[in-house]
Amino acid sequence: MGRLVEAIIASILLSLCFTITKSAPKSALITNLPGFNGTFPSKHYAGYVAIDKHRNKNLWYYFVESERNASVDPVVLWLNGGPGCSSMDGFVYEHGPFNFEPKKKNSHLLHLNPYSWSKVSNIIYLDSPVGVGFSYSNDNADYTTDDTKTASDTHTFLLEWFKMFPEFQSNPFFISGESYAGIYVPTLAAEVVKGHKNVTKPVINFKGYLVGNGVTDEVFDGNALVPFTHGMGLISDELYEETKLVCNGTYYTGGQSGVSKECAGKLKTVSDTVNLLNLYNILEPCYHGTSLSALDIEFLPKSLLTLGKTEKPMAVRKRMFGRAWPLGAVVRPGIVPSWSQLLAGFGVPCIDDTVATKWLNDPAVRKAVHAKEEKAIGNWELCSSNLEYRHDTGSMIEYHRNLTLSGFRALIFSGDHDMCVPYTGSEAWTKAMGYKVVDEWRPWMSNNQVAGFTQGYANNLTFLTIKGAGHTVPEYKPRESLDFYSRFLAGEKI
Length: 494
Hints:
By secondary structure, this protein is α/β, with parallel strands linked by helices.
């Protein structure tokens, strides 16, 4: 009897594997990648999904099948932030199947990444919204967008994608992302849940989501920096106590009445003290100059918060994302690592995106990944200079509350050396949800070492820090990231 059962199971698995080979669109299969000399550890696909055929509005994706068991492993959507930054950032610099190394004599650019998230999951890297990366529309009006439209368009993409890859419809599905994806992820999750209630087909087997160093709430995020700088030993006890006193412990007011002149002065002193540091990881050197910090928002003119609709967003190349801003503000995409950059347009410091930019603009690479030619849609930028983006959804706290109370699992993780979206803000808002603590603050382990700290709450909410990591956690701590990612997807204790 046992052998009969084993034979039946083997037959089912073989059938599933055959289905994967048969069902996935052959035209999307990637057969080679310039810079890589070897055999892919799993199948890769890329191409466009039309989310509005009439307008020729298309989102581009890169899909990596799991290296373990694609037929049953979770499908995970990855979204980088910005707003307006390509998710190929995650592919190239964080947790993709390859490590990109500067080309040396007689060597190749791409090498297999032992800590790729495709070791344990199928993963979709999506360029969203339209106008980002290789995604495009024939109607330039589509490059003016907002949180609500982005969530709706990405949900449409998912429905169409699962029709193209029907063999994955029964797999557990998770949404993940970092930085401004702290907005993208919960708003998209809410759309997916709404689709469930409306019995939208195909039904997406949504189980939960992960957010790394994510923008969440204007006030919580805005108040996070001063405690972070003090806790990290970046400002003196005296300056911290003086700032705390004159600001009454509140360093950002959400654009209501502002702060006092005395408070603004102390905040500027804090800003001046830390502004030579790498915003995205205070342990790392800063390569491209410096930037003022987020604290400057309190004493800069509010009139600088918006761009006029006729003003083209700045064509600057940058890598990171980050801080929330007042509801309704029109944003220069990709320029949100600090309020001062948002308002004054300084560009993003300390970051080098040369490898991704050169590789993805190589005509042979674009052809290999089924992306439009440069003459058709322009050059690939890590963060788009084509968008006008409006933040229109406000705080994400109620989104998280609704999702977790509905039974969906949530992991909020933070690199503890990120000064862009400090862990202090994420720790504060997860605690403010008011859920019962079911797993008290403790270290979590990776490779027999303390990798960070975690606290678990009722209703499937977990907060996690990663020791020594910056804004883009898997970039700095790849082994540890694969560990917590694997455990979360499997429903195991981290």
